Amino acid sequence: MKLETRNSKLHIGIDLGSRTAKFALLEGENVVRLAAHDTITFYKRYGRVEGDDLILDLAASSLFSETEIEHAQITVTGYGRNTLNLRGAKVISEIRAHVAGALFQTGLRDFTLLDLGGQDSKVAQVRGGRLADFVMNDKCAASSGRYLENMASILEVSLEELSSHWEEPVRLDATCGIFGESELIGQILRGHPMANLCAGVNMTLVKRVLPMLKRFPSDRIVLTGGVARNNAMVRLLRKETRQEIVVPNEPQHNGAIGCAFWGLGLEARE
Amino acid sequence: MDRVGFTTTIPLEILIAAGKIPVDLNNVFITSPQSHQLIEDAEIEGFPRNICGWIKGIYAVALKEGIREIIAVTEGDCSNTKALMEVLSLKGVATVPFAYPHDRDPQTLRLEMEKLMRHFGVERDAVYEAKERLDVIRRKVWEIDRLTWEENLVSGGENHYFQVATSDMNGDPDVFEAEIDAFLGELKNRRPYSDQIRLAYIGVPPIVEGLYPFLESHGARVVFNETQRQFSMPYGATDLVEQYRAYTYPYDIFFRLADILIELERRRVDAVIHYVQSFCFRQIEDMIVRSKIPLPVLTLEGDKPSLLDARSRIRIEGFLEMIEGRD
Predict the structure, then answer these.
(1) Percent of chain B with pLDDT over 70
(2) Is the dihedral of CA B257, B260, B265, B270 positive or negative?
(3) Chain B contacts in chain A segment 96-115 (CB below 8 A)
């Protein structure tokens, strides 16, 4: 009986991102476990489609124990949201998941959320703990983590190396993320130091998200998504916006944690 | 009878009086099963990728349909129409320019309309007779619009269709009227919608398909289609020049907003979808729309004819959730 009560508070959150699938297990309001897998690999190994439903074999993935899967409420978000339903799970929108995650992780009630993922850039205005408005990148993904990955591979540096340079950024102006590659190659040929080239790439991303951020003036930006692990980007963003930048403990898992937390809130509401 | 194409709403009365078959090339393009192919055809011929899909669609469909004469609205719509007119004339299509004066000056508009009447060889009486005929049909479409927002009997997509079709009456006013009558008859047996969210759709009609049903599947219904409603000339004007001065679409954004703000309040709208076409100058006006409309606004962008894409659906879902959360 005691076990039942305890397990009824288990919540699994899954964020099926374009690049990485993120998982979170919450017991009440405690984060018990976090995990991440490459999305494509994860789908190939554990996913299949039946009719309009996506079936994920979570038991086989060994991310969660059978008891956990049996007792937890599962809430999911991510790129598959519109094309597929995950069988046995409550599906919520990405914006709802990320706002819930930011509220849970930071304890803040008023902020602008900037989520920079593999393909997405989202900016949401949160007032009094509720979503007030938001914008997302639409036709173009040059303001995303994928852009940083591409540019790191052109520069032949790791993402960690790329993320450590913010001083004297080399100017890069191409609108298109692909043309940006040849522009970067041109700057390499001009002999700029690697550090400044890396800083330039990080600065490009900041410049691309600034117009979206300007829509929602606030004192504080909560930065989430994989890109939030890029320290140089955080420094440049602080410098350009002159706002406080808050990075939660688990920026990349913010959506998955938000899903689980949203499920917890739903249980309370019901 | 000759078919005469046009690039956006023109004084339809003149074409009807002249005994021509009016063809709104936008409607023919977007309802064509090959609409996507038409864009590709135009691009293969040399239209840039970063030009409005409607311009390319109009170009390709005019040639495909063998339209020999086109009225091109050169002022009051986008300047791309001027170049469209030029490339069509290169293909042997006769083009007649028509300009809505930016300042809505009645004398200038009257001259433009008289020029069009002279071109088609029609007199004032015949034009007003045509207006009487068209107004009978338009009044029925106004009723469909009223039944949409006041009685909640009509879907957003149906409201869109009947209003947008008034630009050329589907090429045959009598057949279109019969279709309207049948629809109005059907409505008598309908139960009202009980949607949670009432939306306005403002901007040019969507190039993407499936927007209205998608909204309705999420408990939100469009009760105001701004531009489509304008096509039905819902002013009750007796004078033709006044009618086309009251028509908001070709004039500036502030004139359009005055109409929009009245309707948002009258129809008890909760939130607004501002549709903008990729590469359209009206995307700039989104800044003004957002600052002047006191309701949540979602700006949706469409490029080519296709089903509503996954990203737009994600954004709409987030938007609707946000509206629901406001109560």
Answers:
(1) 99
(2) negative
(3) 96
* Lookup: tokens for B249: 């679409």
| A133: β partners | A125
Instruction: Report if residue A24 sits inside a domain.
Output: yes
**CA-CA distance, A39 to B147, in Å (whole number)?**
48
Whether chain B has a CB inside 8 Å of the CB on A217: the answer is no
Note the ipTM here.
0.71
* Domain B3-124 falls under CATH 3.40.50.11890: yes
Query: What domain range is A64 assigned to?
Result: 2-93+253-269
Domain count for chain A, please give it: 1
On whether residue A174 sits in a domain, the answer given is no
Contact list in A for residue B310 (CB cut-off 8 A) is 79, 82-83
Q: Would you say residue A131 lies in a domain?
A: no
Residue from the list B310, B311, B318 with its beta carbon closest to the beta carbon of A134 = B318
pLDDT tens, residue by residue, B269-319: 999 999 999 999 899 999 999 999 999 999 999 999 999 987 788 889 889
The answer, for B301 touching chain A at a CB cutoff of 8 Å, is yes
A to B CB pairs, distance under 8 Å = 43
CATH code at position A33: 3.30.420.40
pTM: 0.84
Counting Cα atoms < 13 Å in the Cβ hemisphere of B7 gives 33
